[in-house]
Write a structure and sequence with these properties.
Layout (H helix, E strand, L loop, with lengths): L5 H14 L3 E3 L10 E14 L5 E13 L2 H16 L6 E4 L4 E5 L4 E13 L2
Parallel strand pairs: 1-2
Antiparallel strand pairs: 2-3, 3-6, 4-6, 5-6
Helix pairs in contact: 1-2
């Protein structure tokens, strides 16, 4: 069975050079100063078999980037996308056409959201 922590570890490793320690699963702690990123799984396909018989699985992951300004959020979000696409094999990252940019009135920050399909071999 594939290590269930491999995708979150790869996501954190990709985002840490951009956000430092401000990368959190699901929700940032109260009082976290921007910029920061949160990530979480929003779907999972347990197993698909390729034509060559190699079983793989897919996890859909959402990354939210928060910043004080719109341009900062947008720039950091693009850096996060670039970092995710640079994750090395055997993990393959595919961005989905679901990018959103909004002002989050609850936390009074700009948020950019991007979903990814992350594929990895199932052992």
């Amino acid at each position: 069975m594939t290590d269930p922590t491999s995708v979150p570890k790869a996501v954190v490793a990709a985002l840490t050079p951009i956000f430092g320690v401000n990368v959190y699963p699901k929700i940032a702690p109260d009082g976290t100063l921007p910029p920061f990123a949160i990530y979480g799984g929003v779907g999972h396909t347990p197993e698909v078999t390729l034509s060559d018989g190699i079983p793989i699985e897919s996890e859909r992951v959402q990354i939210d980037v928060y910043a004080e300004g719109y341009l900062e959020a947008r720039t950091l979000a693009q850096s996060a996308i670039d970092a995710m696409l640079a994750i090395a094999a055997p993990i393959v990252v595919v961005p989905l056409e679901t990018k959103q940019e909004v002002f989050d009135g609850e936390v009074k920050l700009y948020r950019s959201t991007q979903d990814f399909n992350i594929w990895q071999p199932r052992s």
